[in-house]
Amino acid sequence: MSADDIPESRFAASMLEHADAPPQNPTDNATMGELISLRFSRRGLIKGALAVSAISATVGTVALTSAEEAKAQAGGSAFAFKEVEAGVDANHHVAEGYDANILLRWGDPLFPDSPAFDPAKQTPEAQARQFGYNNDYVGYTPMPGTADPAGHGLLFVNHEYTNPHLMFPGVVTIKDGKPVLANATKERAAIEMMAHGATVAEIRKSNGKWALVKDSPYNRRITVATEMELTGPAAGSERVRTNADQSGKKVFGTLNNCSGGLTPWGTFVTGEENFHGYFSGQLPEGHREAANYKRLGLPDSTYAWGRFEDRFDLAKEPNEANRFGWVVEVDPLDRNSVPKKRTALGRFKHEGADNVVAKDGRVVFYLGDDERFDYVYKFVTAGRFDPNDRAANMSLLDTGTLHVAKFSADGGVEWLPLVFGQGPLTAANGFQSQADVLIETRRAGDLLGATKMDRPEDILPNGVTGKVYVMLTNNTARTDAQVDAANPRAKNAFGHIVEIIEDGGDFTALKGRWEILLKCGDPSVAAVGATFSTETTKNGWFGMPDNCVTDTAGRLWVSTDGNNLRETGRTDGLWAVDTEGAARRTSKLFYRVPHGAELCGPCFTPDDTTAFVAVQHPGDDGPDWPAFGRRSYYEDLSTRWPDFKDDMPVRPSVVAITKRGGGKIGV
Ligand code: FEO
Ligand code: CA
Ligand code: CA
Hints:
Elements: H1 8-13, H2 32-60, H3 67-73, E1 93-94, E2 98-105, H4 124-127, E3 135-142, E4 152-159, H5 164-167, E5 172-175, E6 178-181, H6 186-195, E7 197-206, E8 209-212, E9 220-222, E10 227-231, E11 250-252, E12 257-262, E13 268-272, H7 290-295, E14 327-330, E15 340-342, E16 354-357, E17 362-368, E18 372-374, E19 376-384, H8 390-393, E20 400-407, E21 412-417, H9 434-439, H10 441-448, E22 453-454, E23 456-461, E24 467-472, E25 496-502, E26 511-519, E27 545-550, E28 556-560, H11 565-568, E29 573-577, E30 587-592, E31 598-604, E32 610-616, E33 653-659
Parallel strand pairs: 10-15
Antiparallel strand pairs: 1-30, 2-33, 3-4, 4-7, 5-6, 7-8, 7-9, 10-11, 12-13, 13-14, 14-15, 16-17, 17-19, 18-22, 19-20, 20-21, 21-26, 23-24, 24-25, 25-26, 27-28, 28-29, 29-30, 31-32, 32-33
The structure holds MU-OXO-diiron and calcium ion (2 copies).
């Protein structure tokens, strides 16, 4: 193929994080939008409001005990900082009195022998020793035994995907006034493969500023070439065996790592999200995986690495794609450890894997499948977390029960087990084993009647309040028929946040109650139907909730993906959202990204004095920003953040935010 074969839409799709991935759910299961509509049309807004109070009262029994709670009860926001003004320019902005320092940039050397970053002469070998592209999830864990847990730790960062038009000189040409991206060469694809994956980095704060410890024995790059092991019920299945791996257990690499989580035993878990875009070619006629792959949008060929490696060509290696789409566990304390693809947590377009230790010691992982009309899941370990036995905890993710969520119009949520032999998950529907159920998790959810959601992203259990927050980014494919006057968004362009309280405050419960915390978007536009509090300023509202985190006080912080400049006049950023007391649904803008970026990975040190955030794909897009007005690419960038040097392209980076003079963030 020549560059001419690539339609311009492909150029946009070179960013695989496409919000417009075609929905793949063929069922007539109810959508969340339909349920919200049903619920509010049946019970009326007043009863809906009462239901909110009822849930709040339940939560009051495990309520905040901090100073923030007192503030919330007094009617004010629990967050004390002066808001950033929403808008767009070439730089990032943090609230007054805070510093936002660049900690790690794409291409930064991670090891003493790493070559310096030279964007005009990048090589796969150099990239494999440097910080990767498009940082997404960021997790922090203190160095074992350190006297300074909030100032010395290990950072785990996902590198979700690559934007070749921003990374490489000479790959974009202008044809008939339109930018056209050249197909990858073998060398370029090899660099992009090494720019994917994850980074483990030892970092240390001195004189108030964080820096990489370059000679650390912990620093590690995980790439598409890193050996991994499939574990759990699907490991070894004939459906995950390939010509190169007859064991069905040895896989190379991890793809499109989006969000993630830190386990109580100090490992990191990372979600393989839009893995379909790396596979091209057609399955052999009549191949058994045809329906399975269709449900996942395979092949998609956005990256089409099958031109360079047979395993990414479905015609040559039909089972390889079954070895992606999992949650991967990485032990940051041993850089030679083999990352484990934990098949018990299911196979779909995994967003994150936030988790919590339940009352009885079992560990509960909340999992989103980020596609329009796909599902919310939770995995409950069979074993119990033992704080004194790390080795035993290391196999907790291989045995347990995966559940899919069914939300009902009366405010209930049911967690339906995805267990072979139960209900419809039998040979009659083509499942011969638990491996089959897990490899085709989406189809199992379809059969159980799970609720079709508006792109589930991070799902966060809040150990302080007992609530679970579900980020639903948007779903512009939702039709008029699927909404009503109480939820008047014919296209859910701005997303919403659902709040769940599990029965008895027990995260392992099979039933719970749900409520909408927020319908997002501009509350000053009535037709949007947003539900921010009246205290929320013109800077404070947001759309497209994606990642989220709670601080030690249990306060919610939300980062966004896709605040459409043309519609909103604002970039993505980090918002502080009140969830308790009279200030509930008040939101404030704390930090915003440079033009073209989205914000990922908010993460706090254990004392809340540093917030790490990941600025992903800065400088992407362009036409929607009137001050620039055209597609941004390597030779014609809308911003050169963070270096602002003529010979440096834009660089995705992790930023460390601290309060000037020290102290907790937002207090
Ligand atoms: Fe990679 Fe769902 O965001
Ligand atoms: Ca995400
Ligand atoms: Ca995202």
